Amino acid sequence: MRIAMLAPIAWRVPPRHYGPWERVVALLTDGLVARNIDVTLFATADSRTQARLAPICPRPYAEDSTLDAKAWECLHIAAAFERAAEFDLIHNHFDFLPLSYSMLVKTPLLTTIHGFSSPRILPVYQRYNQHCHYVAISNADRHPSLDYLATVYHGIALNEFTLRQEQGEYLLFFGRIHPEKGVADAITVAQRSGRRLIIAGIVQDQAFFEQQVAPHLDGDQVQYIGSVGPDVRDALLGKAFALLHLVQFEEPFGLSMVEAMACGTPVIAYRRGSVPEVVQHGESGWIVDDVDAAISAVGLVGRLNRAHIRAHVTAHFSQERMVDAYLQVYSTMLQSRHRSW
């Protein structure tokens, strides 16, 4: 089986800090290579992979403002489709744009839909619904107008996360600084519960950060430490009392929830999108509906068994399970193609 893996190029594969799509691509690609699958990864030239790397863009455009994102995306996607005949299938993690290339080649295209950034992109998925194949990253993120081969949850490399049996003392917000990610509610929960809050992540909305976050930063109860990479992530997640995931939108998956739980750290999250699929209420965390309920949940965290939380991730969200699921999807696609011939 020869797979072309088409990654985004906003960040490196794997990302140095932020980059959830790129992180999933890295784990899937290396996991497939470990199963002796022939994979060519189309990613930035500075990417690190066990697969055969096929770079066009020299660096992530999110890290180099001199690169025009649209120009390099055009070249990057074209490079994969120009070589389409070399592969049994192309696995697209680049959102909707590669779909418009799909009818120009004979090689089947699988697209993992990593959430819908806007309803305005839906017509592209609808246009190619009968020609391409789609995978959802949660059942909650499936759109009723589209057909899907499967739902495949993201997996993580469990050896990158350490189970810490001892309970931490600070609350943690780990994600993009953006209104939809819920950092404002996390600050409120921390202040009203009397717990220290550490905020980690890239600032995606500067005005929001300056108006809703910065005024609360006192270096003591509320602290912002910026974006963190894998060298810091394990300890930061593992030493937290709980992860606050109080999202204001329908969460497509929520990789940070799984990473926190892999360390044994409970998650307190709003009942939005995929959250009930990822968090076991009363077992690996608490699913709540508002700030008051989140504050009450902080007082219940001590009831949870951190080893059981880790076991939940091991059973459902490992890299191995993700690779298994995608291999089944690939097999289904290729068998269907052969039958159509």
Report on this model:
There is one protein chain. It is built from eleven helices and 13 strands. It has 341 residues and is α/β, with parallel strands linked by helices. The chain folds into two domains: 2-155 and 318-340, Rossmann fold (3-Layer(aba) Sandwich), CATH 3.40.50; 158-316, Rossmann fold (3-Layer(aba) Sandwich), CATH 3.40.50.2000. The strands form two sheets. Strands 3-2-1-4-5-6-7 form a seven-stranded parallel beta sheet, sandwiched between helices. A six-stranded parallel beta sheet has the order 10-9-8-11-12-13, with helices on both faces. The longest helix has 22 residues, at 319-340. The radius of gyration is 20 Å and the shape is globular. The mean pLDDT is 95.
> Tally of extended strands?
13
CATH homologous superfamily title of the largest domain: Glycogen Phosphorylase B
Poorly predicted residue ranges: none
Report how far apart the termini are: 18 Å
What structural category do the secondary elements indicate? alpha/beta
Give average pLDDT, whole number.
95
Strand order of the largest sheet: 3-2-1-4-5-6-7
Total helix count?
11
Q: Please give the CATH class of the largest domain.
A: Alpha Beta
Shape: globular
* Proper CATH architecture of the largest domain: 3-Layer(aba) Sandwich
Question: The CATH topology of the largest domain is what?
Answer: Rossmann fold
Strand-residue fraction? Answer: 15-25%
Q: What's the main sheet like?
A: 7 strands, parallel
Number of domains: 2
Helix content: 25-40%
The succession of helices and strands, N to C, reads EHEEHEEHEEEHEHEHEHEHEHHH
Our Rg estimate from Cα atoms comes to 20 Å
